[in-house]
């Protein structure tokens, strides 16, 4: 469902992605971990079409990601950005229903948005508030509601627990696991948070120096022998 093939990306002649290859099978939840600067965020931006790789290909559900195909791929795709990325001037329901408003009447879109907000544990009265009136955890939940609003088959999560306290981070991780399972979606998550790996991942990839150094089932992560991965898991400094 997600194929990243031989991705290269540099900024000001500084290589960030160095021939990155990654496949995510249909219905699987892949979590990518690695030290800061390894290229996780750049990889994700290339995967969802926000950044163009210098070379290599991105294929989503059999369709190569290009400037012309991005518009047709996005309705099948849900994205939860690190900071939720809600539109400040729109109400929460309008944020959640942003894409749905292209297809449905406002009353229909609002009803769907309230349903999705309930799914992530937000009350109906949240719908008419502005993002500035919500806590960080509530904004993250609203961002997740927007990501699942169109029942996507492809989902991408950018550091979903950054800035949250451990209790709220745990709730967000469990919600992600639940909605991905319910939708039967294929998911790609990047994170520094090992608890996210433990809750969300079916499979794990370790990104090192702009390429995938190790990949395997989440259940085998703790027995992996790669020294930089072991250092990362132990919280020690790993190379990039």
Report on the architecture of this protein.
- By secondary structure, the chain is of the alpha/beta class.
- The protein has one domain: Rossmann fold (3-Layer(aba) Sandwich).
- It is 32% helix and 25% strand.
- It contains eight helices and ten strands.
- It has helices at residues 40-47, 70-73, 92-96, 106-119, 136-148, 166-183, 194-200, 227-233, and strands at residues 2-11, 14-24, 29-33, 55-60, 63-64, 77-80, 154-158, 186-190, 203-208, 211-217.
- The protein has a six-stranded mixed beta sheet, sandwiched between helices. It has a four-stranded antiparallel beta sheet with strand order 2-1-4-5, covered by helices on one side.
- Helix 6 links the parallel strand 7 (154-158) and strand 8 (186-190).
SS field, number of helical segments: 8
Order of adjacent strands in the largest pleated sheet: 6-7-8-3-9-10
Q: Give the second-level CATH assignment, the architecture.
A: 3-Layer(aba) Sandwich
What is the number of E strands?
10
Mean pLDDT equals 90
Question: Helical proportion?
Answer: 25-40%
Give a quick account of the main beta sheet: strands, pairing sense, barrel closure. Answer: 6 strands, mixed
SS content category: alpha/beta
Q: Low-confidence parts, pLDDT < 50 over ≥5 residues?
A: none
Overall shape = globular
Listing every helix as H and every strand as E from the N terminus to the C terminus, the arrangement reads EEEHEEHEHHHEHEHEEH
CATH topology: Rossmann fold
């Amino acid at each position: 469902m997600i194929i990243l093939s031989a991705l290269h990306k540099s900024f000001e002649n500084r290589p960030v992605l160095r021939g990155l290859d990654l496949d995510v099978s249909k219905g699987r939840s892949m979590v990518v971990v690695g030290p800061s600067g390894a290229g996780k965020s750049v990889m994700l931006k290339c995967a969802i079409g926000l950044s163009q790789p210098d070379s290599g290909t991105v294929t989503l559900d059999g369709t190569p990601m290009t400037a012309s195909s991005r518009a047709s791929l996005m309705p099948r795709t849900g994205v939860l950005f690190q900071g939720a990325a809600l539109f400040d001037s729109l109400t929460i329901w309008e944020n959640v229903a942003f894409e749905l408003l292209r297809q449905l009447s406002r009353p229909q879109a609002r009803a769907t948005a309230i349903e999705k907000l309930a799914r992530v544990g937000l009350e109906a009265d949240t719908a008419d508030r502005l993002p500035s009136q919500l806590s960080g955890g509530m904004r993250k939940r609203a961002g997740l509601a927007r990501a699942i609003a169109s029942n996507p088959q492809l989902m991408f999560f950018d550091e979903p627990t950054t800035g949250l306290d451990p209790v709220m981070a745990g709730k967000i991780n469990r919600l992600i696991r639940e909605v991905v399972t319910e939708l039967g979606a294929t998911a790609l998550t990047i994170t520094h948070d090992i608890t996210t790996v433990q809750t969300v991942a079916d499979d794990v990839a370790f990104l090192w120096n702009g390429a995938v150094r190790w990949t395997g089932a989440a259940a085998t992560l703790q027995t992996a022998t790669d020294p930089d991965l072991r250092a990362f898991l132990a919280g020690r400094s790993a190379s990039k």
